[in-house]
C-alpha cells in the first residue's frame, strides 16, 4: 500500500521535473532566439524533436517494464516519466502551433 508520504514525495518529484522540462523548453526557445550565437534553426528544432522522442521512448520502456513485473521499476517512477513525456509533447505541440501561426501571419503580409 502506498503511504501519504510516498504520494507527496512523488508529487514533489513530478512538480520539480515539470519545472525542469519547462526550463529546458524555455532554454531551447532562448537559444533559438539568441542572435549573439548563430544557431541553425533546423538543428535546434531537430534536437528538440529528438529530445521529446527520447522522453516518450523512456516513458514507454518504463511502463512496459512495470507492466511486466520488473521489480527495479516502481509505479511512481513510471508515472513521473509518463507525465514528463506528456508535458514535453504538449510543449512541442504549442511550439508547432505558434510556428504555424507565425508562418500564416508572414504569408498574409506578403499578399
Give an overview in words.
The protein contains 3 helices and no strands. It is 84% helix and 0% strand. It is elongated and about 60 Å long. The chain is mainly α. The model has no long low-confidence stretch (mean pLDDT 81). Helix 1 packs parallel to helix 3 (75-110) and helix 2 packs antiparallel against helix 3 (75-110). The protein has helices at residues 4-33, 41-67, 75-110.
What would you say about this model in short?
The chain is mainly α and 111 residues long. The protein has helices at residues 4-33, 41-67, 75-110.
Question: What's the helix and strand layout?
Answer:
Blueprint: H1 4-33, H2 41-67, H3 75-110
Number of helices: 3
Query: Topology as H/E string?
Result: HHH
The structure class reads mainly alpha
What distance lies between the first and last C-alpha atoms, to the nearest angstrom?
64 Å
β-strand percent reads: under 5%
Assign a percent range to the helix content. Answer: over 70%
State the total count of DSSP E strands: 0
Kindly report the average pLDDT value. 81
Taking the sheet with the most strands, its summary is: none
Rough outline: elongated
Radius of gyration: 18 Å
Stretches where pLDDT falls below 50 for ≥5 residues? none
Amino acid at each position: 500500500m502506498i503511504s501519504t508520504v510516498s504520494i507527496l514525495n512523488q508529487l514533489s518529484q513530478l512538480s520539480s521535473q515539470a519545472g525542469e522540462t519547462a526550463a529546458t523548453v524555455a532554454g531551447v526557445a532562448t537559444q533559438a532566439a539568441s542572435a549573439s550565437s548563430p544557431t541553425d534553426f533546423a538543428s535546434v528544432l531537430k534536437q528538440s524533436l529528438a529530445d521529446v522522442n527520447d522522453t516518450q521512448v523512456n516513458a514507454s520502456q518504463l511502463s512496459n517494464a512495470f507492466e511486466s513485473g520488473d521489480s527495479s521499476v516502481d509505479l511512481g517512477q513510471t508515472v513521473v516519466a509518463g507525465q514528463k513525456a506528456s508535458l514535453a509533447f504538449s510543449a512541442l505541440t504549442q511550439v508547432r502551433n505558434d510556428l504555424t501561426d507565425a508562418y500564416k501571419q508572414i504569408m498574409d503580409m506578403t499578399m
